[in-house]
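Journal club prep, shared notes

We agreed each person brings one worked example of a sequence with its structure written out as tokens. Mine is Transcriptional regulator WhiB. I'm keeping it raw so we can talk through how to read the token line rather than staring at a rendered picture. Sequence first:
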Amino acid sequence: MSITGHAPDNLPRGDWRDHAACRVLADPEVMFPPPGAPALVARSICDDCPVRRACANWALSNPQDAAFGVWGGLTERERATILRRRVPRDPDHPQAPRKGGRPQAECGTASAYDRHVKKREPIDDACRAAKRRRDAAHRAKAEAAA
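Then the structure, token by token:
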């Protein structure tokens, strides 16, 4: 995923950074708020910047160089989220990354019984038997501790 668009054509040729609104700031630390602090001032500067998209694309393409601060109106957390969601471009790994979470428990286990209950799915006999075994083991453990 990249930010689409480009700087206006009426800008002279050269590096996009030469035309960044933040370049003329008296205090560049404004663009690097402490982690977790609101980045409202930095974002307001980026809102009217003519090279915002180029800046954001550069930050997404060079995450090691743009690890901190607000770049193209995107905070560190927002850039990290975009980078995590990118589909890998490596031809050896064509499938999209997994959507998170654990692999689903197989039927016939107590965990699968819990999943069936949580998702209001029909509960099969193998899962019921596994749940009974788990409950019996918990009762035996509690009795032994008492």
